[in-house]
Amino acid sequence: MCRKLTALFVLLIPFQFLFAQNNLLKDFPEGFGPKEVGKRLAYRFPDKKHMLHAGKWISYPETFNWTGALKYAKLTKDKVLLSRLEERFEKLTSQEKQLLPIMNHVDLNMFGSLPLELYQITKDKNYFDLGMPYADTQWAVPQKASLQQKEWADKGFSWQTRLWIDDMYMITIVQAQAYKATGDKKYIDRAAKEMVLYLDELQRPNGLFYHAPDVPFYWGRGNGWMAAGMTELLRLLPKDNKDRPRILKGYETMMKSLKDYQRPSGMWNQLIDEPDCWAETSGSAMFSYALISGVKHGWLDKQEYAPVARKAWLALVPYINEKGDVAEVCVGTNKKNDKQYYYDRPRNVGDSHGQSPYLWCIFALLEK
Questions:
Q1: Contact present, 234 and 299 (Cβ < 8 Å)
Q2: What is the tally of structural domains in the chain?
Q3: Given 8, 111, 151, 267, which is the most exposed site by the fewest CB atoms within 10 A?
Q4: Does residue 82 fall inside a structural domain?
Q5: CA-to-CA distance for 313 and 212, rounded, in angstroms?
Q6: Is residue 290 a part of any domain in this protein?
Q7: What are the boundaries of the signal sequence (predicted)?
Q8: 5 within domain boundaries
Q9: What are the mean pLDDT values of the chain's consecutive 10-residue runs (368 residues total)?
């Protein structure tokens, strides 16, 4: 009898371990649950002031903060929050029309992803009509385009291509949203082709990315944009898409490197490979989003990466203050071939650069 019980116990060990692995991204201590953390962050957004781009238009950090709050409202069926977010958007399209971004830059065209998210939630065609031109003009070459921009377009890429790693979320997200809104594969296909270009040009053998070809530093949030962009594509790309294997390989290589560079605390540094650099929240949250998604969608081995993703989430939450603002967020950062420049970047509290990636993590943790 004793031998039978021992044998049964041995057989159960793998199942117990697997059960524990499955729960790593479900069961959290009090104060760390994605639904409760998400409510603090999502309800913080409607009360925040606009974060403008060059003082003129709704910025990409605010756009993504807004979209993250919408995803939370949709996922949790929070009609009160959804109503508040729609009311704020209605004001943007009536009293604040001057804040709607123009369609002439990668950091501005991404705005289309927001009305397209609203369209998918509400089915209000006004949102569709507002959002789609932002996706379409990203490939429609303007008359005043430069020679280099026309050359990119002639090769089938966006005329807004500039080979900065930030672009691979800015371009990917509006094209992905257009694909979800229309079902037209041209949007996701061209986003995938663009991603392969950036992978081939910027990803290094260790899986990380230079900020740009002439800036050989592994900036945290910049790499986060790549991680999140690949994640968005892998969520949507059909299995038979010709570019999917290349993107998946780039993603897997990056995730392995991120596992190796994760700090003992669970965070990642402003310059990922520099041990004496400071821990930065926005990039760390973007990496966490990519890791959580990879584990839950089966792109990453659960036993190897679920503990990495959980460790990151548990490290990130304490950076949220009592107001629902995230601390230690690197400010907006242009490329510069100067390592000290990245060390010295100011750190903000409540900056939308940091708020939105946390909401992406929450979305990934809550989705089935």
A1: yes
A2: 1
A3: 8
A4: yes
A5: 28
A6: yes
A7: 1-20
A8: no
A9: 48 48 88 97 95 94 97 97 98 97 97 98 98 98 96 98 95 98 98 97 96 95 98 96 98 98 98 98 98 98 98 98 97 96 97 97 95
* Cβ atoms 224, 282 nearer than 8 A: yes
**What are the residues whose beta carbons fall under 8 Å from the beta carbon of 209, sequence distance 6 or more?**
165, 202, 203, 218, 222, 223, 226, 254
CB count in 10 Å sphere of residue 189: 18
Domain that holds residue 287: 29-135+158-366
What does the chain come to in residues? 368
Q: Is residue 237 part of a domain?
A: yes
How far apart CA 272 and CA 279 sit, in angstroms, is 9
Q: Own/partner pairs for 147-154, CB < 8 Å, 24+ apart?
A: none
Task: Please give the Cα distance from 107 to 321 (Å, whole number).
Answer: 29
d(CA 25, CA 363): 12
Q: What is the CATH number of the domain that holds 176?
A: 1.50.10.10
Angle at 358 between CA 354 and CA 363, to 5 degrees: 145
Give one DSSP letter per residue of 192-228, joined into a string. HHHHHHHHHHHB-TTS-B-SBTTB---BHHHHHHHHH
Euclidean distance between CA atoms 237 and 76, whole angstroms: 25
